[in-house]
Description:
By secondary structure, the protein is an alpha+beta fold. The protein contains 3 helices and 5 strands; from the N terminus they run ααβββββα.
Amino acid sequence: xxxxxxxxxxxxxxxxxxxxxxxxxxxxxxxxxxxxxxxxxxxxxxxxxxxxxxxxxxxxxxxxxxxxxxxxxxxxxxxxxxxxxxxxxxxxxxxxxxxxxxxxxxxxxxxxxxxxxxxxxxxxxxx
Length: 127
């Protein structure tokens, strides 16, 4: 049997969460995909502790990854330390020399325009 496409695997990751984290990841995915039509969905870093892997969005290199934790959905931008973030969305990994992240918690809203701007900036840094 052929392996599922990355998009189908991400659908499964979202569906298997089955709670607010799946809904949040789905909403984040929609915003990310609308930010840049050239983004490619991938699933990477499959390991025994996380056999499903992690959703990854790339465009000329990794733009961001998503991880679902018990109390948060973390969206990590690999070159976040180089980004401006004028709306101050980054709230995690703030001391990292390279990446920055946004932790979304149950009930949080998404600043769609600001998140799209971050995705576009991350894509621009990959060029």
